Amino acid sequence: MSKYCSICGDKCGLFSRWTLKNGLICKRCRSKLSYWFLKSGKRLSSCTIADINEQLRYREGNQNLLKLFHPTRQVQLKDETFLKVDDAAEKFMVVNQREDPNPDVLDFSMFLGCVVDSEEKEQKYKPENERPYYKTRCRFNIVMQVDTPYYTKINLERKLSVCTSESVSDFGGRLLSGRERLEYEKYEEEKRAIKKIEKTVNDIFAEYHKKQEAKEAERIELQRKKEAERIELQRKKEAERIELQRKNAIDEKIREVADLVTEKFDEAELLRKAALSAQDKVKEYGRLRQFCLSYIPELGDDRYGLVSALKKCWEYVNVDMCSSFENNWKALSKAFFQLNRGIQGENHVEEVLSLYDDRICFIRNHTWIYEHDFIVLAPSGIYTIEVKMLSDDYVLTETGMLKPLNDPWKRTSDVVLQSRKHVETLRKGLKECAAYTSDIPITEIICCADGNHIIKNEFPDMIVCYCNTLNKYLFPDNAENKLTAERMAELKDFLLQNGEKEPRTYSVFGDKGDLPDRDEFVRNFAYTVGAKYVQEHFDSF
User: Fold this and answer.
1) CA distance readout (Å), 228 to 164, 171, 242
2) Tens of pLDDT along 396-450?
């Protein structure tokens, strides 16, 4: 083995070298190691060259720490400084007995505890020709537990002794007097001071460790909160994923149901035409209503409220589409009931006129520039009848306006002007008919088909009657017969041949119709059916 130092390379003397696990170390390099490491009892022979080099680098760094170390407290051991503490930097050092220019500067966190052990013995001496005496010795072992890479304990030994003429083991110095008593009391006081070091040192670091425990508890609490937040975020993401999955399932089901309803709607061949006659419009709207009610029966109770009914799955459905369909359904229902009511009124009038078919001729829903509900050819003259199927009591004012008696907000209509247009256009057209002469009167009549309501007539030149009083005006008493049966038949043929051949049609869609375009109505209706299906099976999604 080489006789040169494995650390610095200098030559090692026979008595100034120490064996390492894989080399040698000289006295000068050994002196640079930590004093407490050398005192810890760890053999250099168990250390490698790498271990020593690592510790020497640590010791070089310790010199920088030493320059920044400013003690704020000190602990005395007898008359010597035992411990120095820098509270600001949270550093401490234990002063060793040798004059070490580079004592270890340790962190507060490295301190684990301090224990003071003591052992006391009393021994009797009998010198020749002298009085016997007693010598009491007390050895203290101060052990500081630390957590460093190079040693785990710092051991300090202190010894005290006192000589007395009497034994103090039994009576504790009570038999002593004078100078011996004073020396013994000093000995006891020094013992107590050294034993007190344990509490003093532990108290110095207790506050730091308390703060560290608080910080650790705070760190653990922060970590717990972060973990809780992470779990909560993960839970929310999972809930969002499930919610999105549920929404997609609902959307898919709504589309599936909507596609099926649209297919059935087309198979039923509904709303194929954009304009219909009044009769066909009622029939088509009736078919449409039956089809819709077969899918959404609640519509028939006249309360609607589809949007509010869909609140259970509010976040999953297109409320605008449902609202649009609800509005369309209201418009459709209103138009259907008004048209159907008007046709019922015309049917009632036609039933009455048919009673006199051997005496009169009449044409229903005939268009001669304007559409006439009825044109009646009677012996007394020609009559154009405007049928009103009312749901309330009305008044025909002096100005010719038909107004409701009890509800001023309802729409009014100028029925007199309407009737005058019927009369004048009919008169002008009949001039070309050979069977017509100017002495044949053409009279307008407003007939209220519903006998449960009245029309109060305040207009002097207009006939207002009811179905059951219509004959009174068609067959007036003492009236001169202007038309024979042959002339009535000839006039009827002329009207049928020269009037509009096709019945007048009314818009179903668009601005003048009752509904939007067909595709929008079907799409909104089909989507609403899908939404209703989802509402009924919402818990299964």
Assistant:
1) 71, 66, 20
2) 999 999 999 888 777 788 999 999 999 999 999 999 999 999 999 999 999 999 8
The sheet carrying 394-396 orders its strands as 402-404, 394-396, 455-457
Tell me, what DSSP letter sits at residue 203? H
Return the sign of the alpha-carbon dihedral for residues 473, 478, 483, 484: positive
Average confidence (pLDDT) over 106-119 = 91
Q: What's phi and psi for 361, nearest 5 deg?
A: -125, 140
Strand order in the sheet with 111-125: 111-125, 133-146, 153-164
Quote the mean pLDDT of the chain.
Answer: 89
Q: Give the span between the Cα atoms of 198 and 189, in whole angstroms.
A: 15
DSSP 157-170: EEEEEEEESS--TT
pLDDT for 175:
63
Q: Which helix (H) or strand (E) holds 355?
A: none
For residue 302, pLDDT over 60 is answered with no
- Strands 73-77 and 275-277, sheet pairing: unpaired
pLDDT band at 527 (very low <50, low <70, confident <90, very high): very high
Plot region of 302 (φ>0 → left; ψ -120 to 50 → alpha; else → beta): left
Tokens 């799955």 correspond to what residue?
Answer: 313
CA distance 422 to 424: 6
Per DSSP bridges, beta strands 73-77 and 80-86 are: antiparallel
What is the pLDDT averaged over residues 338-358?
93
8 Å CB contact between 527 and 322: yes
